[in-house]
Structures are given as C-alpha cells and as structure tokens.
Write a structure and sequence with these properties.
Radius of gyration: 17 Å
Helix content: over 70%
Low-confidence stretches: none
Shape: elongated
Keywords: Membrane, Transmembrane, Transmembrane helix
Mean pLDDT: 93
Distance between the termini: 26 Å
Oligomer: single chain
Number of domains: 1
Number of helices: 4
C-alpha cells in the first residue's frame, strides 16, 4: 500500500489545525476574546507553508525539517498548559481549551512522529546506497 507523501500530510495536518482553531473560536465563551483559540491555527499555517515548499524536490529536506521543528514546538506548546493545569489542580476547568490543547498535541505529535520516521528511513536508505 502506497502512503501519502509527507508534504501532503503536512498540508492536511495544517488544515486540520486551522479547522481546530476556527471551531474553538466559534465555540468560545462570548465573554472571552478567544484569541488563544487561534494558536493551533498559527501552527497549522506553518505546516501549510512548509508542506507546500516541500512539494519542490530541492526544498523538501529543509522544509520537512522545519515542519518537524514546528511540530515539536506544537507538542510542547500543547502539553505545557495541560501539565500546568494538572499541577494547579484545575485540570478540565476549561474543557474547550483542554480540547484544543489535546487536539494540537495529537496533530503535532503525529506529524513529528512521521517526520522522525521519514528521516530515519532516509538515512538508512543513504547508508545502504553508500555500502552497496
């Protein structure tokens, strides 16, 4: 079974993060400005841009490394507030924010795992070609 190219997965995850932001903003408490709901969308926009750049063969390596860096920051950016709310004892006090954070961690974590796996496979491929 053929898998999707990593740049297309990056673009799809970018669109999913942007959709997550839009949903979060629409569902926000009317008394809140809700601007933090757009944080996943910022990461999604970067996934889109770097994924589109990675469609060009000569930019692929650098663009996908940038995607992996953004994904790592997204995982950390989603996990830190979750862990802080656990430490403060108010985990789940803001269910919408928690949902956005979990969604961001899952989408960015998936992208990071796929990137790391791709980098490992590329290195092994290069080593086999050099040896053989």
């Amino acid at each position: 079974m053929a898998s999707l190219p990593l740049p297309l997965i990056s673009i799809a995850n970018g669109l999913a993060l942007i959709a997550l932001s839009i949903i979060g903003y629409v569902l926000k408490d009317p008394s809140n400005s809700g601007m933090t709901a757009f944080i996943p969308g910022g990461f999604g926009l970067l996934f889109l841009v770097f994924g589109a750049l990675a469609l060009k063969e000569n930019l692929r390596k650098h663009a996908m490394h940038a995607v992996s860096a953004v994904a790592l920051l997204g995982v950390l950016g989603g996990l830190v507030p979750i862990l802080m709310s656990l430490a403060k004892g108010n985990f789940g006090a803001r269910p919408l924010a928690l949902g956005l954070q979990i969604g961001m961690v899952l989408l960015c974590g998936e992208m990071l795992a796929l990137c790391v796996n791709s980098f490992i496979q590329a290195r092994r491929r290069r080593e086999r070609e050099a040896a053989g």
